[in-house]
Amino acid sequence: MHAPGEALRFPGRIGLGTWQMGQSAAQRSREVAAVEHALATGYRLIDTAEMYGDGSAERIVGGALKHFGAARRSELFIVSKVLPDNATRAGTARACEASIARMGCEYLDLYLLHWPGPHRFSETLRGFGDLLRRGLIRHCGVSNLDLGQLQGWLEAERSLGLPTHTQCNQLYYCPEARGIEFALLPWQRSQGIQTMAYSPLGSGRLVRNPALAQIGRARGVSAAQIALAWCVREPDVVAIPKSIDSQRLDENLHAAQLRLSATELQQVDRAFPPPRSQQPLEMI
Ligand SMILES: NC(=O)c1ccc[n+]([C@@H]2O[C@H](COP(=O)([O-])OP(=O)(O)OC[C@H]3O[C@@H](n4cnc5c(N)ncnc54)[C@H](OP(=O)(O)O)[C@@H]3O)[C@@H](O)[C@H]2O)c1
Fold it and tell me: In the chain, what are the domains?
């Protein structure tokens, strides 16, 4: 049993994304093997969602968890997300129970509202509150909320007196999507809210980027590793790249050990200038 209200601590700076998994039966065994490889080589944070493959990505995670061993569940940090359309009080509880059943994982370490939708935040938060009290989730949080929405969310949370508070917003963040740096990221930082960077490789677009590749060549690492090291350069940001290739999985995990120098950070800034004004939240 976990203490309600405990501080959110991610096990490491790089986790595994699972979007696009579970979409083709022909790929299933390769995808399960990839998640098994990730767990065997040290990934401890897994991000998934009821939306991915309509539940199939969670089933793939479940297949790999079986192999990892139910007795070792507490070593892992599993994140899933409720679809906005399901995020009423009762719908949130049902969706969470279904995610846990698909993965066979007993509980979720972090449960997120995938993006803001038709239901009032207070409805979703009541659902999260029920799940926290039942021990089915350890933490709750959000994804794709802009600054105003996040402030509204936290206000609703305070007024409901939940046994914990939101400590994570999962956002699109990578060198080519830096809009959150202008206002949202600094505000989250001031409030102790951590950022989980999704699509940290720009959904694959950055792995052949010439500027990142050039920085990487001088260090003997790949463009992907530079992109990931850049995303997690501050201690309150973790990244969740997705791969189903064992070599790329290893490469991505090792990026957590890279520290970029001031010169390298300037090179990234020249190729991908930081935002100079408030921009609408980017979403993938
Ligand atoms: N909250 C949200 O709304 C939201 C939205 C989007 C994504 N996400 C989460 O964030 C995760 C990551 O985002 P993403 O899947 O969009 O994209 P990503 O992780 O930025 O990039 C994944 C793509 O890059 C390739 N790749 C991975 N590592 C590589 C490497 N070292 N070298 C070369 N290619 C590499 C992968 O192909 P291979 O698999 O063939 O290696 C895949 O095509 C998702 O899986 C999901 O869990 C959340």
Answer: 25-202+236-241 (3.20.20.100)
